Amino acid sequence: MNKKGTVFNPLRIMSIFGTRPEAIKMAPVVKRLEETDGIESIVCVTAQHREMLDQVLKLFNISPQYDLNIMKSGQTLSEITCRALMGLEKVIKEVNPHMILVHGDTTTTFVGALAGFYNQINIGHVEAGLRSGNMYSPYPEEMNRSLTGRLANLHFAPTNGNKKNLLREDIEKNDIIVTGNTVIDALLGIVNEEYKFELDILNNIDYKNKKVILLTSHRRENLGKPMENIFSAIKEIVMKNEDAEVVFPIHLNPKVREIAFSILENTPRVHLIDPLDYEPFANLMNRAYVILTDSGGIQEEAPALGKPVLVLRTETERPEAVEAGTVNIVGVEKEEIFNTTDKLLNNKEEYKKMASAVNPYGDGKASERIVKAIKEYFKDK
Q1: Quick one: which of 151, 187, 221, 320 could link to 360 by a disulfide (CB 3.0–4.6 Å)?
Q2: Are residues 139 and 258 in the same domain?
């Protein structure tokens, strides 16, 4: 723990992340830290997800000083936790940072905060205060972010709703800073109306005259019957609506791919493709008519692009977009997914209402606010 009266010059701020979503949302923070006088930015990645993480590091030109490279095929949550904790222990002792930044709700997030706590290092939690209220949904993310919240010194909450969640958990008001979501910072720097995809199949879609549905589905809790319902509903939507076209970048999880191909393969106007890097994916979101997803991050990104989102889950830890009207929770039952999607495709007023809703996740200056708050925190230390 840092003692009062000590002058820190430079401040050593270590950002820890391990997955693609974390990297996307931490990239603007890392870049802001790098260009800020009086701060030494150190990046440590666990590489909980290797290939997808590397794509983002390359896109944003981030070169980690430390790379634990912990990913192994078929890894369990316990294995990720143990390998990350042991690796981070060594790095923290070597760097001795003044603050560790973790993001969101992955296993790397929780373990990064825990390792910091064990070494009595200040912890900043980016994207703090999200809660679904169900410890097993999303799993294990809900508990990861809740536990991280108990360990953090500074809580960077994207919205006032997130701040209220933290206050209900007796987090000190002065330790919570409402910043907006850093994903908007990243997104606005990536989307380009003239963007050309590497995949011809994406360049050849008639986005002006077709109602393109972007589908993503990969969550653990949706494996099995829920995912079968989702894909069956999508198949029926396409068969009923001749102007509908689906693009589905399929997650690398073999279980997801098996269900997807068994139901959707060879369906007309359904394009099953491999996962996309962040830049083409962001630009595909921008071209889509509507997005169906069980992802958390997309619920934040799509509103910034004016795209209606149908959430393929039974609850969300991002209620702000639901309240704003740009996100609708449709669950995992086939009939509800079909009916809601069909209505959105064919009811112009319903579509306009969702597409024109105000984005509740910020103005693209979250990273600036986070770095400013960190510097303020250490002024009196």
Answers
A1: 320
A2: no
Catalytic residue among 127, 185, 245, 320: 127
Whether the per-residue pLDDT at 85 is higher than 50: the answer is yes
pTM greater than the 0.90 cutoff: no
Q: Which one from 251, 271, 287, 318 is the annotated catalytic residue? A: 251
User: Is residue 274 in a domain?
Assistant: yes
- Nearest 5°: the CA angle 364, 112, 67 is 85
Q: Is 218 a catalytic residue?
A: yes
Mark whether 155 and 233 lie in a shared domain: no
Verify whether residue 141 is a known catalytic residue: yes
Concatenating the DSSP letter of every residue in 123-157 gives: EEEET-----SBTTBSTTHHHHHHHHHHH-SEEEE
Name the residue with tokens 């690398």: 252
pLDDT in tens, 86-104: 999 999 999 999 999 999 9
Catalytic residue among 22, 141, 279, 294: 141
Q: Are 89 and 44 in contact (CB under 8 A)?
A: no
- Active-site residue, 145 included: no
Average per-residue pLDDT for the chain: 94
DSSP string, 186-199: HHHTT--TT---SS
Is there a single domain that holds both residue 25 and residue 174? yes
Asked whether residue 16 falls in the same domain as residue 164, the answer is yes
- Residues 16-62 have pLDDT tens digits of 999 989 999 999 999 999 999 999 999 999 998 888 899 899 999 99
On the question of pLDDT at 1 being above 60, the answer is: no
Domain assignment present for residue 193? The answer is no
Instruction: Confirm whether 251 is a catalytic residue.
Output: yes
Give the residue numbers spanning the domain of 204: 200-356
Options 12, 50, 175, 220, the catalytic residue: 220
Query: Are both 161 and 222 inside the same structural domain?
Result: no
Identify the CATH number of the domain in which residue 136 sits. 3.40.50.2000
| Same domain flag for 17 and 111 | yes
